[in-house]
Write a structure and sequence with these properties.
alpha+beta, 2 domains
Amino acid sequence: MPAIAMTHSLNDYLRLSISRYREQLKQGNAQSIEVSYTHRSKPYQYSIQLSKSACHYGNYRYWWLCPKCSKRTSVLYCAGLYVCRHCIGANYGSQLQQPIDRLFSRLHTIRQRLGWQEGIAQEIGERPKGMHHSTYDRLVTEHEQLTAKVWQASLDKLGCTS
């Protein structure tokens, strides 16, 4: 069972993406980037080391080196210092979802692909233009199965099952 909402998600932290510095990195052969910011009324100013890896078709891709563990990453998260997601100990939002929330997320995704309105109860509409018949049939079948699971879970929770 996933952790309940008391666990922090990565969405709770400020992000520092390496792509934010793309133009600055194109200028030359950078070894580090100087960052300065204020977090909870405390000023921070330090240098974050960089690493680069060769791409298959030439040029390089830059990476942050986590100031705490020196792992290579493309995003750092602010917990006082900017550190990687492993050092911060937070989870992705999807890792914190309860099973019923996963069902609702999947239903939402299917309804978007089919061009349907929000909500569980849904009349079967026309196949979206350009969607293959077998894909449409598969999505409609999956939607019906997931809807049945949601209704069953609701009835179980209310104690209405026999």
